[in-house]
Structure formats: structure tokens, C-alpha cells
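Predicting holo structure, manganese (II) ion bound.
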Amino acid sequence: MKPTSSLDRREFVKLGTLATAASLLPAAARAAETTALTLPPLAFAFDALEPHIDAKTMEIHHDKHHAAYIKNFNTALETKPDLAKQPLDQLLANLPAIPDEALRNTLRNNGGGHWNHDFFWKTLSPADKSGKPSDMLAAAIQATFTSDEAFKKAFGEAATKRFGSGWAWLVVKDGKLKVTSTPNQDNPAMKGIVPDADLGTPILALDVWEHAYYLHYQNRRPDYIAAWWNVVNWPVVSERYAVAMV
Ligand code: MN
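Done. C-alpha cells:
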């Protein structure tokens, strides 16, 4: 899969080295040195997606929800230096190898929470900069779904029918576009633990947790999905598609 968190990974490596050098420091200082993930800033202001996604939702979603996933993930790894040294993609791909079920679930939910939100923010753009799919991606959408409308309908159904909390995904699998969804914070990086494992390479994601839309849309998830299409960052999705097809 195309790395999506290379900065995080470099931080992992760098901090892993620092952690070794810091092994003589008191435990509290050492824990601070090995904190692996940090909250990436958004590339736009909280109100930049109005009226489609409101500023308050963006602020709480990024500064509270995403931040909490990172805090929980880092806390869980404070006393697990061997796991903390692993790049996030590698850790998520090897979750079944973690024997401690409570730790495994914490890393699954919170590591997935960070991975998914980092991916999701990059998929968003103010409506006036949203752009459109590249010719290559547009042709693939036509070939796979027969029309743009049919594609949005299929994606919207995956997002609407995901019971409870989860994500809808557009992925590249075996060179083809495919719409799918995952529960909770599971994602296609979690080989061997997601029931429909090896979901493919994600290029577009939609968060359908209530925290992503409830302040503005309450129970109207379909209205949120319809509005969200206005703020999809198509240049980024098209670039991911091009990379996935190499
Ligand atoms: Mn979310």
C-alpha cells in the first residue's frame, strides 16, 4: 500500500533511536521521548468546508476525537517499546500477532482511528478547490459503475447501510475500483483482522460515525453524505488512484 503516514513513520524511527539513548532517563521522561504519533494539522480552517461540513463539527472532530485516538494509542505503547518502534502500517497489518487481547483492541481502535482520520482529512477540500476526478479515474468510474451517478449511489449505499459507526471506502483491488465499508475504526491496512481482509488500496474514505455529522445533520446521514461530495479533494483521490494503478 502507498504509505500515508510517512512523517509518522520517520518520527517512529527517529524517536526509537532517541529512546535507546534516553534509556538512562527517568521513566516519565523516557515515556515522553517515545510518544510516537502526533496530531497532524488540517490543511484548511475549521470553517473552510461550510456549509457542507460545519466548523464546530470539524473542530471537535479534529481537536477532540482524532486527538483522543492519538493519546490513547501513545498511552497504550508507553510500556511497549518494541511495538512502539513499528511503523503504524506494519503494526496494523500485524495485529493478530499481539497476544494481549485488550492491548490488541486498543491499538486496533486507536491506531485505526489515527490512520483513518489522517487519510480522511487529506480527502477533504474546500468546495471551490474540490476539482474533479482525473481523466484516468473518471474513465475507471465509468467503466466500473457505468456513470458518475451510479458510482455515488453505490458509495452512498455502502455508507448508509454501514450499521452503527464505521467507514465507507473506494479502493483499488486487483486493478479495479471497488466500493466497500468497515465497522468502527477498522481499515484496509489491517490485514488478517478485518473480516473481509485484503480490502485493497484505499483512495477515498468517508467517516460515517455520528461524531462526523450529528451536530449539523442529526440523524440525517444521507444528507451528510450528499453534502460531503461537494468537499471531496479529487486531485488527491486521483493521485492516489494513479499510484495504486502503477
Ligand atoms: Mn471520525
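The longest helix spans residues 55-77.
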